Amino acid sequence: MISQKARYALRALLYLAAKAGDHPVQIGEIAEAEKLPRKFLEQILAELKKPGIVRSQRGRSGGYSLGRPAKDISFADVLRVTDGPLALSPCVSVMAYRKCDDCFEESVCAIRKALLAARDATAQILESRNLAMAAAQLKRSGAI
Amino acid sequence: MISQKARYALRALLYLAAKAGDHPVQIGEIAEAEKLPRKFLEQILAELKKPGIVRSQRGRSGGYSLGRPAKDISFADVLRVTDGPLALSPCVSVMAYRKCDDCFEESVCAIRKALLAARDATAQILESRNLAMAAAQLKRSGAI
DNA sequence: TTTAATTCCTATTGACTTGATAGAGATTAA
DNA sequence: TTAATCTCTATCAAGTCAATAGGAATTAAA
Prior knowledge:
Oligomer: homodimer
Number of helices of chain A: 6
Largest interface: A-B, 40 and 39 residues
């Protein structure tokens, strides 16, 4: 299951993607519109800022905007920030590989082989879905 | 990521699948062979017993064996017991559907659509891999 | 120059989950 | 009868999750 943090992040980002104006959006507006806990959202946006998924403008009339085009921000990008690797085991993570603590011999591990296939399938989907697609979907269904 | 419990469960089950004798295997043997914490393994096998993944024989010369043919125990079956639903959100879980707490309108949720596709991809893989395949793999690679 | 509005940073907290450990009870073959 | 096993319940420390809090830094506008 994804974390609450991930849900909040995705909703905030979708809001930014749907708005897509020229000037930044204030955190208060996002929190109110999407009914997100404001202070928690601050932390989340701070994390999203590090890898450049959002960028911020400080001071009066500051706010947040997407760090790059919505079509270049995938669900995988977001979930990796909020929830860590997509993989079901560190030994099959592409972005954050690590040997399992008690692994005997990775190359013959039957568990690993199944988890690797699962990772590839999940990543293929989540990397192919981006914020632009999701925002367009929302518009089509009249939710915005 | 899968839990430690899931790893232990899979290793114990693979041990049973590879052994595949007629009489049950004692928990002490499994724990020692696979280097698993014995008392923790007890709890795990108890959980696997409820849905019939393993069955047990009590008393002297008792032990555990697979509850059905290894080819009929998928990775998905095991992970659902140890780690809960495969889905990334309750609203896309097939085996344990639940509406998200703060969901506005499920049918137009853009997040849900992506997570649903991810679930299907993951489930397709994990339901198609079973203990018999994994055990055969181990034998082929000479690990047993 | 001041002020007000905003993001930024760090600490804290309660509830829950994880990964065990412990010990006694129930069952059964020898 | 006994010894070897599974069964059940309780407990625990450490970590994670989902927030909340308060003030510092920054900037546009008055």
